[in-house]
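Our preliminary data section would be incomplete without showing what the modeling component actually yields. Below, a chain of 232 amino acids is followed by its predicted structure, encoded as tokens that our downstream tools consume directly.
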Amino acid sequence: MRSWCYRASRNLGGGLLCPFVRRQVWRTPGAVEPTGAAVLVANHISHFDPLLLALAFDRVIDWMTTEEFYANRLVAPWLRAVNTFPVDRSRPDRRALRLGLERLRARRIVGVFPEGGLRAGITSILGGAAPKSGATALARLAGAPIIPCVVLGADRLYAWRSWWPGPPRVQVWVTIGAPLLVSGLDSDESNTRLAGVLRELCAAAVAYFDLSPDDLPASPARRKGKDAQALS
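Predicted structure:
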């Protein structure tokens, strides 16, 4: 695995975001940097989420990434160099499951967004939707803990005025929860437990950071619309 490319990309991305984004990371009681295999799971509100989460962890995260991105001949080699692996979101993907298990058996961290794409409101786990089963299946089969995370604020980066130089910078909040074990649960039980933990983590983040309803996830289209209204 080419960890040097991952770390270089993470550092470069973090440097490019720094003038525009103010990150705050909260590790809840019991949250730790995993030393062995783990499945990192988070809600998904922007294409910046993998970088924002990578910046919150010292170790390399092997992201499960939708296979559409690998169709680009320029992007695909870089995706492989930073240790991602493809998943077909249109069907149960046994190959992605096998690759994820191989990474976990090598004591690596595998990152999964169990919503299957960008989600906000009632279509998201935080809004009441059920997670896809891939993340919990990996954790159960590998006997690995799940590291639950919640990202808030990153959807504001879809508003073009967020990329103006100078203050105010976009506020992004990353909350990391205590490890969740699902090895003794069946598929439905583990998915229900994961969804509950992510919702509880979101509520804790709202209270800890004193967030307003406008800080909660919105779709990219809605964020762009809000931005246009603010300028009119």
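The longest helix spans residues 187-209. The domain at 3-231 is CATH 3.40.1130 (Glycerol-3-phosphate (1)-acyltransferase). Preliminary results of this kind motivate Aim 1 of the renewal.
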